[in-house]
Amino acid sequence: MMAVLPHILNGLTLGLLFALIALGFTLIVGVMEVINLAHGSLFALGAYFALTVLGGDWLGATAAAEWWTSLPLASRYIAALIFGPILAAGAGLLLEMCLRPTYGKAPLYGLLLTFGAALVIEEAIRLVWGTGEQHLMLPRSIDGAVFVGGLIYSKYKFFAAAFSAAAIVAVWLFLERTPYGAIIKAGSHDSEMVRALGYDLSRLRLLVFGFGASLAGLAGVVMVPIWGLRPHVGIDVVIPAFLIIVVGGIGSFWGAVVAAIMVGLAVGLTGAYAGAWATMSMYILLILVVGFRSRGLLGRKSALEN
Amino acid sequence: MSKKLISRRSLLGATATGGAIAAFAGPWKHNRVWAAGSDKPIKIGITSDASGQYANSGASDRRGMMMAIDEANEAGGVLGRKIEFVHLDTETTPATGSRVAERMISREECGFLIGAVSSGVANAISQVAQKYGVIYLNTNSSSPSESGANCHRVKFVWDGNGTNFAKAAVKNAIATYGKNWLLLTNDYVWGHDTAAATRKLLEEYGGTVTEEILVPQGTRDFSAALLKIQQSGPDVVSAAVGGDDQKAMRQQVAQLGMGEKPAWINSQQDWPDVYGLPLDNLFGVFGTTWYYKLDLPGVADFVKKYQERYPDTQMRVPGNVFYNGYMATRELLAAIERAGSTNNIAIIKQLEGHKMPAAERMQHDDAWIDPVTHQVQQTIYLATANSGTQDADDMFKIVNHSSPDAVLDSDAAAACKLESYEDTPTFDA
């Protein structure tokens, strides 16, 4: 049993990171009923923006750049953690504007548009930041290793998991305790009713998409020191994110969190004891859950089930 | 209802058209002669990855091929004919590799195919190439099965294979680091074949495989495997992990400070997989066929030529993948010149057993193309991180080199059964 504990811990931390990735995705699907295939690209964009903020290249060869790079890495990292998601949100807002003509049409239009956007964003990343591997420098306080129960763990991974947990709680509080959150939640139940009550549906969609994109960007900044930063890193994100929201129940906040932890545990444990099945374990979990409960763990009951 | 009679003119026209189609398409599979003696350009199909796990290596491979093609064209072409090329992305996916090969041969009319980093992709391409008799140079994939069980008469393998690299590394590493080895294996053909070669050599030299951890292609988080390695406590981890997976793995190993203990052996490693990584990510020993700082005549000029031709490339110096792509293409074009024709069988005979002097290949030993397996037998180098340099490009130092004879893969020769010349469709490109 003692031998399994480190892997359970590893699976839990991995699950929290997956949850951060899936949150924005589930929010957009829930409110807008758009499967945003560009979610991974927004994830990558957030990380690349963070890289630029951290490095100070955007200031050119100026005194300001010199001043910026002379600042402690920790403060630049915090700035990257703030501005990476904000800039990704900007890209998300643009994408939402492009999506507008597809509203009210068959879901395939939105799907194709976001797929196209993913390709465009990836190519844009190649043009701006190049094709090679990049590194997001970490402050020393969260870099390196720490001993837990005689085994070495990545200090950063603990930080990232704790950060993800805090972000999940913050998003939940936002949705539960603020008027904007209430509108978003109402929108996810019945957007037409929200419009009927006098709220601007266009603005709601813009807000949700921007917010979802910022969460994707935030996940990017947090995850790439573990996954590595390359133009197609976003592709690695979309499949687990999609899988998690289906397992958790489309549009369900806590469903996504629970599913992400289950996926993390499945990947962590199979990675240790049956490595070849680590990726496959996600799909097996999906088959098991959807096989027994088609609407996912905490998904709303479909009209078809009545 | 109208009734039409077939006129004599239309009948003649149809017959002529049918005859023309039959002349070109009919014998395609077995005897395709469309351009003999013409000044039609020689068309090469570049089948390298531009996306997926090996996109970076694919780009480097392609640059090598293009430099060789440019040089040939600047020198007046081959047999007086211009060399043209077409590139299609094989996406690091075997199915796409097959599709691309089929299209390049039947629609783009390529007479030769070059390129591949993934062995799965290379194998897929080579099956299509053999069906048509089109010569295919597998530039950078290094699974032993490529020159073993999956060898083909039309396929030539330019990189060292997993057994070559393992032979160069295993014996020394047992003596230096210890007998207990853990295998960390990418779960696809190259990983499995390389791990099998390492396992066999370990048994031969008195080492033990304590455990093998398989990691699926596309693994981003190695923490489960690394925890298992800590729990297992081997002397050596022999990693057959490639492409972007290797980048992720290296960063995570370095972050945990596990690069020194246990010792890490990467039997083979491509330059684009590690270029630009911080020094503490470059732990361990790995095998390669070439390094841009080899102290040999011609290397500096080659590097200069690369830098002049590709001034804006992120990789500021050529690596082993570029080198393999360049050398393969150059040798193919030279073989066409020697054959004095673009007949595939004549060119295959020029390549089989062909000797390449060390000085021309910028390696320590003469190399040759094994006529039994179609693999280039060449010097294998072992390298490790160059800790004492300020030069960001000079990432490695060569620890030692092994002659082609010392690392010969006899298993591949036993497993390879090349198709006969008669069973290989012939044509002129």
Automatic annotation (TrEMBL), chain A:
Location of this chain's protein in the cell: Cell membrane
First-listed, main subcellular location of the protein, grouped into a coarse class: membrane
Signal peptide (from-to): none
Gene Ontology biological process: amino acid transport
GO molecular function: transmembrane transporter activity
Topology within the bilayer: Multi-pass membrane protein
Transmembrane spans: 12-35, 42-65, 77-95, 107-129, 158-175, 206-229, 241-266, 272-292
Domain of life: Bacteria
GO cellular component: plasma membrane
Entry similarity comment: Belongs to the binding-protein-dependent transport system permease family. LivHM subfamily.
Name of the protein in its database record: Branched-chain amino acid ABC transporter permease
From TrEMBL, chain B:
SUPFAM superfamilies: Periplasmic binding protein-like I (SSF53822)
Pfam families in UniProt: Peripla_BP_6
Residues in the signal sequence: 1-25
Domain of life per record: Bacteria
Entry keyword Ribonucleoprotein: no
Keywords: Amino-acid transport, Signal, Transport
Biological process, per Gene Ontology: amino acid transport
Coiled coil, from the record: none
Residue stretches making up the Leucine-binding protein domain: 41-388
PANTHER family given in the database record: LEUCINE-SPECIFIC-BINDING PROTEIN, PERIPLASMIC BINDING PROTEIN OF ABC TRANSPORTER FOR NATURAL AMINO ACIDS
Family affiliation: Belongs to the leucine-binding protein family.
Name of this protein: ABC transporter substrate-binding protein
Species assigned in the record: Nitratireductor mangrovi
Lineage, top ranks: Bacteria, Pseudomonadati, Pseudomonadota, Alphaproteobacteria, Hyphomicrobiales
